[in-house]
């Protein structure tokens, strides 16, 4: 089996991936994410903000298997191209993510967890309760699609 297939299989079995996006100056920004793998496409939800601006300005990204705190586990990095989805494609991906992560999908981002940055944890209680029951894509969130390249490997991080 080619190394890329093994890396994809490992990624597909993982609950977490470390997403590496790049600022305009080429500086890498690493973020642990929950995701679903559909063939060679990784899908994840993120709050609309710096990460969505980075992937819009510079769509080349990297993914590697990690733990919940974002510590890479030693597998190969996969490179890809990110696109922010909208409309039914985003809603469909959100439903697939709900199926994969179950009740945790809407609960975990709302909790304060030591050592983990959850961008929705400071919402008022009433809004947290509303979001916990809502299976649609949250209005301040986006679904990002990452089309993974055919070969594993990390880009030169110094080059924008």
TrEMBL record:
GO CC field: cytosol
InterPro entries reported for this sequence: F420H2_bilvrd_red/Heme_oxyg (IPR052019), PPOX_F420-dep_Rv2061_put (IPR019965), Pyridox_Oxase_N (IPR011576), Split_barrel_FMN-bd (IPR012349)
Pfam families linked to this entry: PNPOx_N
Repressor is among the record's keywords: no
Domain of life: Bacteria
Transport recorded as keyword: no
Occurrences of domain Pyridoxamine 5'-phosphate oxidase N-terminal (ranges): 9-102
Keywords for this protein: Oxidoreductase
GO molecular-function term, one example from the UniProt record: coenzyme F420 binding
Protein name: Pyridoxamine 5'-phosphate oxidase
Organism: Mycolicibacterium neworleansense
